[in-house]
Fold these 2 entries.
Entry 1:
Amino acid sequence: MQEAPVVLLGYDLLEWQGQDLRERPLQERRELLVRLVAQINHPALRLSPSIEFEHWEDLAKLRETARDQGSEGLMLKRLASAYQVGRKRGDWWKWKVDPLVIDAVMIYAQKGHGRRSNLYTDYTFAVRDGEQLIPFTKAYSGLTDKEIAQVDNWIRRNSWRNSDRYGP
């Protein structure tokens, strides 16, 4: 706990006292969450910050600090919105900062699971250190079905398969 303290950061309250709150407005769910966190009053239970702004320019400046906060942008939600799952549209909008760019090499591709078990959907990337390739990340989300099909096609056309030595 000293080296890596853990907190529970509350963003929303979906159920309370056995009652499903997902169809209730965010503003109502948030007010309940604020009261609950205050009532519990424990340092490991914290509220996510709410951002109030008057001008889009102010919000845009805050968005530009997202990386400093370990975030990919801002999640904007209408106070009247119900809880939503999946890709957010309409009442919820993920306003991301522009992605960072790096020169990397895809060194490995794995087939996915379920309906994507016949497609290469999981990728491992490396960066060059002199003549050596150093793996640094795996990627397995963020592409549309069409993009996955395009990457899968490219992998099948361009990969050297010697699974005893390298894998796909």
Entry 2:
Amino acid sequence: MPLTTHTFKAVQLCRGNGLEIGALSRPAELDAQVIYADVCNNATMTEVLHGLRGGPYYDCDKLVEPTIILQPPHYYIPIDNDRLDFVYTSHVLEHSPNPVAALYDQLRVVRNDGIVYLIVPNRRRTYDFRRPATSVTKLMRKFECNDFSFDPADASELLWGTTGHAHYLDKTPERLVEIQATPGPHHYTVFTPASVLNLVTALMPRFNCEMVYFNAEDIHIHVALRKLGPAPL
């Protein structure tokens, strides 16, 4: 990701040894030792990206080969507790089957005072602008129920509610079946600045972390969480 006024904070906070999840062909330019994780290797990812309508949206010749492959259905990070200085993700959480569990797992692997830095799309500036923000209640319920499924009702809302994107122009029952069969590339969670702040407010006491940075001035919502200690779960 090119450095902008909104990503300088990531450079400041993400130091030492860390992990970036979902870099694809645009890894963050961090002043750190970084290992990379994704849900598949580059060969498979190239097939996925070329299969997207209007895609591939990324330069497949520049994909970063991940060292770690995250395995379904949980996509947990196969690293012991308290080992990293940071975890960085950009436009990843909205694709997760359980975003709260993903954040918990990311906080788990960083040391006390470590940083989880996340960037998610701001609904009002994307093709999700007509869709409702996903409620904190729903996200927390999925976490508490250990639910890592993609709800078919969410797929329907996604298809019918998304506006102005080549991948969702064909609004037919057949297209809905295709989306349900390939949930990974889609925005199953919709974020607004308010919904992100509400979610972080709910998570901080539960996950024993604090928010040290927030920015929602453009298409991206930036959040940095600092781990204070083991989560009281």
